[in-house]
Amino acid sequence: MIHLAKRAQLLKPSPILMLAARAGELKAAGNDVISLSIGEPDWTPYPNIKEAAIASIREGKSKYTPAAGIPELRKAIAEQASKDLGIPYEVSQVTASSGAKFVLFAALQAIVNPGDEVILVAPYWASYSTMVELADGTPKEVVCDQTVDFKLTPEILKKAIGPKTKAILLNSPSNPTGKIYSRAELSALAEVFRANPQVAIISDDIYNRLCFEHKLAPHILHVAPDLRDRVIVLNGASKSYAMTGWRLGWALGPKEVITAMTNYQSQSVSCANAMSQYAAVEAIKNCDPDVAKTVESLKDRAAVLVKALEEIPGVKVAKPEGAFYLWVDVSAYLGKSLDGKVMKTSSDLAEAYLNDQMVAAVPGSEFGLDGYFRLSYALSKEEGKRAVDRMKVFFAKLK
Ligand SMILES: Cc1ncc(COP(=O)(O)O)c(C=O)c1O
């Protein structure tokens, strides 16, 4: 018998991928399943991205690449980020690898020592806490509920920082809430960071091009460029360019951190998929107009679904500002029952909603705040509407 290592014992599969897999099984068994679970665009990459990948294969550009990525990609990333953030980044400050998820994993491995605390702003993306634990760190969750519009405030931040704080993860637009920090809110947080120079800031910008009112989400570096030596900027091709399965993400930051991350990558995955890297160069350089059209479509879908959801008694929706998630307060239904089973948590509600109505929604508990559903609306308006109609039926059945 082989005993599992401690780190593997604490490892749970990603609940969102599990839910998506269960929805897939139900679908394969012939059920009319609608999945609002996985954070994945329902459109495919823009044609020029696909052509760039195909051209790279035809030209035989399918060898191992440097661990930090091909020079053209690192240059394109550095140029885009320099323009976006108003700070000059050099190519040596860029590393790319197999998805932003792995790049974040490498960042945490590069900076967290055993016992270090990493502040997570709940509700937060489900994978953050396990990744911190896998780096032998301690996730320090701070709950930011509806009273603060699900966003970190300087007061909450001040209280959360202690002698063991190594880093904080910020994500705007947010998965799961779709909320965006304003420049003023970021400036207020920056004051607290200035007073606590030991804290590194990991800014997960994976949705930064998917904003309804801005071309680009406001950034901590827009308002506090003086913090640049403490900020690790994280981004990738999955969401803006619909390249989820192509697995390409990147980070920018202080040279020594980026080098450590690259070394981590070189000793683990070697490098990102070569074809995806060539395709991402094209995406970064030439797809901003396409992304703008996509954002209009997302905004439209969000408006339709928010309106439909708000017609369900007791349901409240946090006004979405970007990304493609709705954060829906379903706490009015906690304590009610279906067929004798009491709905104690949003997890019970999500399970019953899937079994009864064949719709997969992710329970808020997976993001560190119970009483909510996260609905991914990167699907057609018609399908989204059908899912909401079924929610209405489902909630009406709860007694
Ligand atoms: C907040 C957030 N960060 C990072 C990622 C990782 O994206 P990827 O690994 O596909 O680049 C995701 C994906 O769902 C996300 O929602």
Give a structural overview.
- This protein is α/β, with parallel strands linked by helices and about 400 residues long.
- The chain folds into two domains: about 5-45 and about 290-395, Aspartate Aminotransferase, domain 1; about 50-285, 3-Layer(aba) Sandwich (Aspartate Aminotransferase, domain 2).
- Helices cover about 40% and strands about 15% of the residues.
- It has helices at about 5-10, 15-30, 45-60, 70-85, 100-110, 125-135, 155-160, 185-195, 220-225, 255-265, 275-285, 290-310, 345-355, 380-395; strands spanning about 35, 95, 115-120, 140-145, 165-170, 200-205, 230-235, 250, 315, 325-330, 335-340, 340, 360, 360-365, 370-375.
- Strands 2-8-7-6-5-3-4 form a seven-stranded mixed sheet, sandwiched between helices. A four-stranded antiparallel sheet has the order 9-10-15-14.
- Helix 3 runs antiparallel to helix 11, helix 5 (about 100-110) packs parallel to helix 6 and helix 5 (about 100-110) crosses helix 10 (about 255-265).
- It is globular and about 60 Å long.
- The termini are far apart.
- The model has no long low-confidence stretch (mean pLDDT about 95).
- Bound molecules: pyridoxal-5'-phosphate (PLP).
- Pyridoxal-5'-phosphate binds near residues 100, 175 and 236.
- Pyridoxal-5'-phosphate binds near residues 171, 175, 204, 236 and 238.
